[in-house]
Amino acid sequence: MKRFGALPLLALTGALMSCGVGPIDMTAPTATLTATPTTLTAAGTVTMTATASDANGISKVEFYDNGTLISTDTTSPYTASKAYTFADNGAHTLSVKAYDYSANVGQASATVTVAIADRNEPNDSVAAATPLSIGTPISGAITGQDRDKDYYAFTAAAGDMLKLNVRSVSVDSNSTLDPYVMILMPDGKTVLEKDDDGGSAMESEIRFNVPVDGTYTVVLTSFNIHNDATATDDLATNTYELLLSRR
Ligand SMILES: [Ca+2]
Ligand SMILES: [Ca+2]
Ligand SMILES: [Ca+2]
Ligand SMILES: [Ca+2]
């Protein structure tokens, strides 16, 4: 045990002092956090920008969403981003922890509200179409952006006799949607059929025979958006039920 006496420790302490190590840093960094946007009504990405400063420098900044680590940034500007969908609906406390080189932590937070009305979003292109099964109704809404279009994809065989219905007020009397719907051929461009008010009242109905085997795309929007290239129609009440059935 004699070999582990006090001398080495004293020597180490002396060496540190002679190296000019200053007083221990006990002061936490200061930090700020800005999140943009603070409310999401459509699926999208929130960008977080933090500032952090400390007399002895910043070693890293950690970004959290409701306490779960998103990412770490070691260089200024300190930024992070996170994508949100319908599954993330609710309040999100975004926060940062800024560390100095002595493990002191400065914190800041911001609140983001995710309130996406349509569970199928994002479905704004042929590539992002929501799968649609024959015989299974699916609910959505034309909302969350100025000119929402909802894309759905289904597979059918040549000769299939089908019917596509978009119901709004007959499903929910509070619905404000006047639906407009198109079916695109498997090339994703050519219009096979389109309809504004083939169903009851303003609702849409298309009866069609499938010309070739393939995956077809349904494009659903409001008559206002279809009819006027500059119109906006973003109402949470623009709800509908889409049903593809055999006839
Ligand atoms: Ca410090
Ligand atoms: Ca939608
Ligand atoms: Ca959409
Ligand atoms: Ca209509």
From TrEMBL:
The keyword Cell inner membrane does not apply. Keywords: Signal. The keyword Signal applies. SUPFAM superfamilies: Collagen-binding domain, PKD domain. This is Peptidase C-terminal archaeal/bacterial domain-containing protein. Residues 1-20 form the signal peptide. Residues 148-221 form the Peptidase C-terminal archaeal/bacterial domain.
